[in-house]
Specification:
463 residues, alpha/beta, Aspartate Aminotransferase, domain 1, Aspartate Aminotransferase, domain 2, 2 domains, four-stranded mixed β-sheet, 15 helices, binds pyridoxal-5'-phosphate
């Protein structure tokens, strides 16, 4: 029986991946041993389950990280384009963050009292993102949860609408997707006893007709969306999509929450400021305090006033429950506030964005040149300091396009190859992020490694 071209290619990819993982194992004995030891204590082998997702077969254990570089405990140096999946978009421990953290660590980290740095931050967040009233949380997940809670509080509606293929953190309502035309839990796995139909709605990104239909029922508290979807490969919005989403949400009294946690790569005010979007609530996290766990969400004047009608702004003189279900004990702590100030004042500056955007453009152009020289059906997308290679001919329009067109095994092979060649990208898809410390020579190194990957595939007749 003659095997189809695709099946033969897939078998070859498996063989190549076996070889790359064997290479990684051989050259990383200390990390391999550490991983085996970690499996004795940690539920998923490492302190976080995400850490098991590296394509080498196990993660490299870090000795130290500086700027855009990581050294592992086996002595290998990596150019880090993963940057903690954006948590380290400022670079690993930039000097300004280190100074601020050291200073604040010596003066108290968490007091349930504000420090004066927070005043500077409040004004700066408004200047950057345009929204007047802010709250700090310890993670973007938590900021999204806070935004959802507020949307439900002021609308009295139960449901959160998200786009299929989204990721907004460990937010229960967002773990839904459309697969094979069916709505269900993300990846259709992990049943968890929650009836998602009661709390969520999901439609395809760029599908305005479906969005209109879903909002018309009047049971959606908020639409929660990234301005460009970044967590399922990059899915750009169609022309006019955001204007239509804004119009539909306004018309139906639905709160619009824009999650800029990843798209903060666009520039100092995120995609929102760059493209003049007008969210009711904006969320940003990960890099916002330079790697110290923190996030923010901002409310429009109108949303804030609606909140104050339910929860008075001033503290009542009589004792009553202080539980709002928003944020946590460590939210807005002094250490976070100090490092966030350092980030906004000295690290995520227009000048540094200029540098990062230039390098992301260079990386994207180099990758495109290699792709087109070899007539490969792949493409590269860029959002500011972030670029993504996808093994599909054109940018997807929706999660459905990604499900239909993704070549997951080729991605895994590329990632394993990158690791062996000293390059780290986010382990979930092929996304590259620049930080202020990234250098042109590191971007050039990627072009060289990517070209050699293509040569490997051609030699093996996979492409
Ligand atoms: C767009 C977006 N929002 C929120 C989150 C959650 O961030 P965290 O894991 O820091 O809570 C992520 C994480 O990848 C994200 O990509």
């Amino acid at each position: 029986m003659k095997l189809s071209k695709q099946v033969t290619a897939d078998m070859t990819i498996e063989t190549l991946l076996d070889a790359e993982q064997a290479r990684f194992l051989k050259s990383h004995p200390r990390s391999a041993a550490a991983w085996r030891k970690g499996e004795e204590s940690f539920l998923f082998g490492g302190p976080s389950h995400w850490m098991r997702r590296w394509a080498g077969g196990f993660p490299a254990y870090v000795d130290e990280a500086h700027g855009a570089r990581i050294r592992d405990i086996d002595g290998h140096d990596y150019v880090d384009f993963c940057l903690g999946d954006t948590g380290a978009m400022c670079g690993h421990t930039p000097a300004a963050v280190l100074r601020a953290a050291q200073r604040q660590l010596a003066r108290g980290t968490t007091m349930m009292l504000p420090t004066e740095d927070s005043l500077w931050i409040g004004e700066e967040l408004t200047r950057r993102f345009g929204l007047p009233f802010w709250t700090l949380t310890t993670s973007a997940t938590d900021a999204n949860r806070g935004a959802i809670r507020i949307a439900r509080m002021i609308t009295g509606r139960p449901k959160v609408l998200v786009f299929s293929g989204c990721y907004h953190g460990g937010v229960e309502e967002a773990h839904v997707e459309i697969r094979d035309g069916r709505i269900g839990l993300r990846n259709m796995i992990h049943p968890n006893g929650v009836n998602h139909a009661e709390v969520s709605k999901v439609v395809e990104f760029n599908d305005l007709a479906a969005l209109e239909l879903a909002l018309a029922e009047g049971d959606v508290a908020c639409v929660l969306t990234e301005p460009i979807m970044t967590n399922f490969g990059m899915i750009p919005p169609d022309d006019g999509f955001h204007a239509a989403v804004r119009e539909l949400t306004r018309r139906t009294g639905t709160i619009l929450v824009i999650d800029e946690t990843h798209t903060l790569s666009s520039g100092p005010g995120g995609y929102t400021a760059l493209h003049g979007l007008k969210p009711d609530i904006l969320v940003a996290g990960k890099a916002i305090a330079g790697g110290i766990p923190a996030a923010v969400f901002g409310l429009s004047q109108e949303v804030a006033e609606r909140v104050w009608k339910i929860v008075p702004r001033v503290n009542p003189r009589t004792r009553q429950s202080a539980h709002l279900g928003i944020g946590g004990t460590l939210a807005g702590n002094a250490l976070t506030v100090a490092t966030m100030r350092a980030v906004l004042e000295e690290v995520l500056t227009p000048a540094n964005y200029g540098h990062m955007l230039g390098l992301a453009t260079r990386l994207a152009e180099d990758a495109r040149a290699i792709i087109s020289a070899h007539h490969l059906p792949w493409h590269v997308t860029q959002v500011g300091a972030r670029a993504e290679i996808m093994f599909m001919p054109r940018p997807p329009k929706s999660g459905a396009d990604v499900i239909a067109g993704r070549r997951a095994n080729l991605e895994t092979l590329l990632h394993a190859f990158y690791m062996n060649e000293g390059i780290l990208v986010t382990p979930f898809h092929t996304m590259f992020l620049m930080c202020p410390a990234t250098e042109a020579v590191e971007v050039a190194r990627h072009a060289d490694v990517f070209a050699r990957f293509v040569a490997l595939l051609q030699q093996a007749k996979v492409v």
